Amino acid sequence: MTIWPFSVSFLLFATLAFTAPFLVLYYQQLQFTGPQIGLLVGLPPLVTLLTTPLWTGWADTSKRHRLVVSLAILGSASALVALPLVSGFLPVLLLVLLFIVSYSPLTSFADSATMFMLADKKELYGRIRLGGTIGFGLAAPLAGFLVQTNGLKFAFWGGAVLLLLALLVSQKLIHGQLSADPSVRPGFRALLINPQWYFFLILAFMGGVAMSATNNYLFPFLQELRANESTMGLVLTFGTFSEIPVFFFGHYLLKRFKPFGLLRWAMLITGIRLLFFAFSGSANHILFLQLFNGLTFPAMWMAGVAYADEKAPVGLRTTAQGLFGVMVGGFGASVGGFMGGALLASLGGRGIFFLYGAIVLCATLMVSFQQSRTTSSQPIS
Which tens digit of pLDDT belongs to each residue from 20-56? Predict the structure, then answer.
């Protein structure tokens, strides 16, 4: 039965490989200005802060998860089909927003269903999420070939085809609706008043900031280190393949450290790794540090999904996953992206990684200290 969530993860991240690397190239092909491109890149994550909780909240309150997921997939696929057919800034902006708004909750839905379908084997989530790593790794070169031979439009149309396949496979997901629970309002209140959720979401936010640093500013820093394009490709490859053992053996990590403990360790390693980036003197140092990528964002994501599922109030599993995803990919990524853009010109890539590494490390230590004080009688798991 786990073949279905594995397949959905594979297809969703394959879609990402077809679309994300080519969006800015498409904007440049349309000769959009720098401020226009900045708006197209920076606005969508902010919008998801509002829309993702609406999607997941709607699914949990209506208990019609399959319908909501289907509508979200159709919305994102429709946007990708139409995107190559327009050229004006406003139509492109609206379609990009439609794609991001529709696509952004899909991983939360998939993670929630995965955890439910795993039942008493939730610690094996990493092996399901490994489908996303494999999907991205296999789809990226195929997308590059299609773009090189047929143009950018085939990246978006290829992504739409993958989403339609995901629509078919997603019908096999079981979201664990609880028809006996007439109201989720008590659960919402429990989320709002539980201080442990604030500690958790702060670490998730820091994870998004760190993710933004490596996703957006690692290549500019490599340029500062005089790395060529081939080396940049190797850096990306090393980082991708380092995820495989962490996801595959993730159940051992979760069993050893528990979800919140693994989340703390992942964020500590993330902060230290960013600082090592800042002190790197060559691209070879970056290549070596990429071998530890699996212990940063992938471990953080795996631990966050496990914790959100474990501590979610009754009837709010998907909402909890949505909150986690919003803090990482919405709020954290937006703040990290906007701050980094302003800092790049003044501090350079080395300065960005030093500052972000110090912030992530200090915030993680402070959260760990405060959390240990408030839960001394009831340790968090």
Answer: 767 877 887 898 886 787 678 777 777 887 888 788 8
Structural domains of the chain, with CATH:
1-173 (1.20.1250.20), 188-381 (1.20.1250.20)
What is the per-residue burial (b if ≥16 Cβ within 10 Å, else e) of 209-221?
A: bbbbbbebbbbeb
From CA 97, how far away is CA 48, in angstroms rounded? 9
Nearest CA among 113, 249, 245 for reference residue 176: 113
Query: Which residues in the chain show pLDDT less than 70?
Result: 1, 21, 34, 38, 176-194, 229-230, 232-233, 341-342, 374-381
Global pTM?
A: 0.71
What does 307-322 look like in DSSP terms, one character per residue? Answer: HHHHHPPTT-HHHHHH
CA geometry: angle at 213 spanning 265 and 248, to 5°? 45
- What's the sign of the alpha-carbon dihedral 157, 108, 139, 284? positive
Q: State the Cα–Cα distance between residues 325 and 118, nearest whole angstrom.
A: 20
Q: What is the distance between the alpha carbons of residues 145 and 141, in angstroms, rounded to a whole number?
A: 6
DSSP-derived secondary structure letter, 175: -
Query: Is the sign of the CA dihedral 358, 343, 101, 163 positive or negative?
Result: negative
Q: How far is CA 47 from CA 34, 59, 105, in A?
A: 20, 19, 12
**242: helix, strand or coil:** coil
**What sign results for the dihedral spanned by CA atoms 185, 189, 190, 191?**
positive
Letter for the amino acid at 251? Answer: H
The DSSP code for 182 is -
